[in-house]
Records
---
Amino acid sequence: MEEVNDWWTSLSPAQQQDIISNRPDWIGNLDGIPVNDRGAANLNRLNSEITAVDEEIAEKQTEFEGQGGPLDDPVYVKRAQQELHRLERKREELEQLRETFKNDSGRHTLVLLDATSGDHLQAAVAIGEEDFADHSVALSDQAEAGGERLAGFLDSLWSTHYGDPHLVASGHSYGSSVTGYALQETAAPDEFNALGSPGVSTNHLGPLHIIPGKFNVASTPGDGVAVIARFGGQPPVSEGHRIGTGGWISPEGIDYSPS
């Protein structure tokens, strides 16, 4: 990761911009690249990702027009239909993401874009000017397997940040479980918010590299997800703080109130 950042910072601004514009796939998901540069590259990737999915959809539609494929095989037809529906759903997700950023004021950054690894589009969005912010919040909503990937992103955010950030890892629902697994592999975050959490992978703060008082828990009455502790339990609230769901300001003055 440090080698990646050293390479990137060794380039001139013109060279960096050339890669962002013409080879955005090189750096869009690459840990060690500053968040803002990753975001710009991923925005440039959106159109090409949509074009690639459109080409796959056209290929499947051609099969259904009788120009290829064993259409007399019901098993093949069913699988082809499922694949076509999967591609159409992914195309819709990509288009929604593109439209969202068309109307964005610049407050959000598309720091991860993966349209090939699964049935659904995978994307991560950072809030604010992450490369310069005094307080950074990383949000996660993926499954348990995303913990390792999130840990790499948190390390990258720390290593490419200008200055000494107060990094907060915040996960909602099952995303807090991913964040818990990630924190077992990185010491980058200073604070951890678990919101409506079904468990954060451990019953103690030690494995999460979070010190007592920097663990914040929030849930609403009757939240069935938050009481099951399915993913490895949760450290006791006595090691941190219980925060209200209507808004909260941390001891450091960070405002988590709804905006």
---
Amino acid sequence: MKDKKMLFIFSFITIVLILSLTLDIKDIEKLSGLFSSEKEMSEVESQSKKEEKQSAQGDENIHIKKNGNSIYLKANLDTINPITSLSWLDKNTLRFNYTFEDENIENIIYDYSTKEEKIEAKFNIKGIIWEWAKANKDGIIYSNDGFNGLFYMDNKEKETKISKNQEWYSISPDGKKVIVNGVPNDKGDRNERFIYDLEKNKYELANYIPDIDYVYSYIAATWSPDSTHIVSQEPGNNSRINIIDANKGIEKKINIDNNILTLPTWSEDGKKLTFLIQSNEYKDYVINDLEIQYFLSDKIGIYDVKTKKIKIIDLKDKLTTSRVHWSRDNEKIIVETTKAENAQKLLEDDWTQIKAKIEYINIKTKKRKEVLDSGIDMTDDYPVHQITPIKLFSNNILLFMDSNKDIRSINITKIDKKDIITKEIGYLYSYSEYKDSIYMISDEGIYISDDNLKIKELINFQEEYGENTLNVDAKISPDYKKIVLYVQYDIDSDDKTFIEIKKIK
């Protein structure tokens, strides 16, 4: 062994001497540089692999990759839509459902922290999910098919069955309570209406809420945005509206001289409720709107939750032809009206079109202002409104649709000005307001409008992701600093579904 070692050393020295005799100084420098470059390349490759390992976190279902200012979450399945129900829990946390199928269908609900760049499987649910929603602080509420059982699961994956079956249910905006029209899990087979408190793990019967089909459940019970109250009506009993305290039961039964009361609508803060009042003298002024009847009304009632008092705005010679839309500051409303004499023409067979106006009403002062010309077309035996208000924002900017213009166009105007800005942005999916800007998401991209009604394109989906894009589901974070985009392609496309999280510029 010692002789072999000495032979190796002698051979190495001989090779070095031969090289020194045959190579000049420049060749030696090049050779030295070659070894140096290989060492540097080795270090770079090592660092690259380390960074790739750090940026490609996730688990067996979700692959995470960071590229510049964007983070990509890619599903390892090749199906078109393995990810559903994408939403922001808070400004730094994203939640979504990942569905996969081997022998059985299974759902994993993930939370992804944009701050820590970490993904965590929070809930595992067997079978198809009809619907799920955030409930309480850390849990979820879900149903496999919408009708056969409603379940609550906490962050430890402990499952509580709320009902054996249900016709419909409605979760409060804060996720702490749920109204159920069904059979409680601890009862026999009798159908009840009850309010289940997820924090206390118990329920109170609420059979003052009517037992009706799920199609009309919004009439039976609608939560206030602050989750403290519920408004309820009985089908066939249009002369009464019940205001329900979510903790105590019926708070007030509203009846105004047995007049028809319809379309109760909560203000954004949940402190007030508008409803339409049709006096007996106009009882024949009814429009059939597909599956429902619309009662043209001569008054608007406003219920104050705090004082429990009702204010009435008399429209005098006019009648409402649409539901009420609240402003962001909860002090103004927008509604479509027409003169009573015009409404009379709709009752005659030879009239199919009438003129109307969009009115802006200050509920405190009762002052009214006509802001847009509109109209109603009954050619097809149901009303087509020229102007459809979408949202009245806090800076008195009104977002609306105009049937006389391209259906892919959006229209914006300021109440105290006459300028109307029209821009084709595609089919509008969602809209929101942050500071002095309005954000709009359509099937074509994301747009922003400022206080001067200038509309700017933030992202064009086809330009960003290609013409073979099937759909892009976009959601803006609560602090408006980030946006998540779920990009889907056709199953035959070489491009695969992914989620991108990027900063808003």
---
Amino acid sequence: MDSKTKTMLKNNILDNTENKISLIDNEVKEILEKYSDKSIEYFSNWIVFPSLDDSGDSIKKQKLYGFYQKDDKSYIKTGNLAGFIRLDNKLDFRIKSRFGGEKDYFLQYMICKVFNVNITNLAYAVSKSDELRVMALLLLPAYIMKAYRKGLFRSYKCFKRNDDKVRGAIDVARHIRQNPLFNGKIAYTSREYSYDNHITQLLRHAIEYAGTLEIGKSLLSHNLELAKALQEIECATPSYAIQRRNEIINTNKKPFSHPYYSEYADLQKLCLMILRQKGIDFTCNGSENIQGIIFNTSWLWEEYLYSVIKPLGFKHPNNRKKLGKIDVFKIPNDFCEFHYYPDFYKENIVLDAKYKELDKNIKDNEKFTKDFEKNAYLYVFTKNQKGNFCISK
């Protein structure tokens, strides 16, 4: 397998499953062993849902997969993570939902519902080698809107001007060259805040490329709010030129970091993933050889259920962001407090969502914790109904 050849694992890799696989060659085995038992935080340039900043250690410490051999057979053991993975820019494989079948429509359907993507987009047929790019395209509108609601990103940019309104350092050599006779103009260089920067240019290039695809056109004409955002991005990037696409990609090699515009970090990764999947020639090094879009399926299952039952008046506390907590007791002066984050609740109903596989050999202390949790819901919230959205084998 040379550096430009990509191999796809032929076996179905399902979440929460011990998957038996057929190894293609020794190089595939070496790649799988190289990243076996690596936690999600190791793959720094991946798109992960929920975001690592919002999810805490519970997601960061989860292992993507474990690879091992037993009785001359090879296995990949997976957990609650699913998605699209490319390792060393050579090996592609996909971890599917164990309920999705060959085409994994179940996972795609949940993604579309959670990210408010038009369900008809699932009708677009794509090859397996194209799946990573298509998934990135499906997520692009949601990520654009998430960043746009914070405001378009601005950064300092140097401008070379030649006019009579000096607002920076005079460039003597350029002034002599451009103004041989006194004409009232002065050549100078200014450093100003601008919307037309490397991040908005990258976003513009990703949008323009998406617009050349049938599925991209459908996604980007999703709603009026998105159309307004796209129009503002277009107006903010007057220097856009398709010939500069490689230059813009290389300018964005450094991961984006900003205390206020943090939403643009994942958007940058997503745009690079879309443009790189197009086949643009660029130099990969280090972690850039590892690409992926990963979902915590238990989180996705909860968010999907909320999109269904929200119209019924249910509330959905967020224990990762510590939002919507229900206080059980609180000692004066805030010395001690105890609270719960039920998955869903309203008036007289408490609901709990479970995606993981039911384990018949569950430890006694874990069983006690779950029983304690359910009984506490009944007692503390004084509800007369409780239930589960449980999805297992």
---
Amino acid sequence: MQRTNHARTAAAILIIALLGAAAAATAATPADTAPATGKSAKAKPKPRGASTKVRRGPPNHSGETTAERDRRLYRECQGLPNAGACLGYTRR
């Protein structure tokens, strides 16, 4: 037969009951149950105006533009194997 600690079990049940009661009490606060003051219960969507943003790729921290990078890679990759950083830059 298994021995149980009834005092520990009773304390655990009491703690769970108290936490449940506290959660129930905070769930129904007067601010939540108050009627809306003339406003619609549904949230109105914000008008979509001039907030469109142009997304570009990640910033280039090397300080060169893509055209400059292309010219540099064509220049540096002449005669090298068409692989790695030179992939596509060995011939014009």
